[in-house]
Amino acid sequence: MPVVGGVTEEPRWFKSSHSGANETECLEAAFGRIGVLIRDSKRPAGPHLSVSTATWSRFVADVVE
């Protein structure tokens, strides 16, 4: 996979380390060129959301608090 500006061409999806053992309610995220992609881990071929990196950073900061 070619890397452009530190981000791969194809999204590299990952689950949060806070997902725990519950495999029925997980989100996956991937860093893209213009933001962060979010999808349901049970439906990887389904739709996804795209948010700015600033929005993602605020979300993560609020969740961790």
Please summarize what this structure is.
The protein is α+β, with helices and mostly antiparallel strands and 65 residues long.
Describe this structure in words.
The protein is α+β, with helices and mostly antiparallel strands. It has a domain at 29-65. 18% of the residues lie in helices and 31% in strands. Strands 3-4-5-6 form a four-stranded antiparallel sheet. Strands 1-2 form a two-stranded antiparallel sheet. The longest helix is centred in the C-terminal third of the chain and has 12 residues, at 53-64. The termini are far apart.
Task: Write the element-wise H/E pattern from the N-terminal end onward.
Answer: EEEEEEH
The strand count comes to 6
User: Beta fraction of the residues?
Assistant: 25-35%
Spatially, the strands of the biggest sheet line up as: 3-4-5-6
How many helices does DSSP assign?
1
> How would you describe the shape?
flat
What structural class is derived from the secondary structure elements? alpha+beta
Protein name: DUF397 domain-containing protein
Organism: Streptomyces fuscichromogenes
Domain DUF397: 12-63
Region (Disordered): 1-20
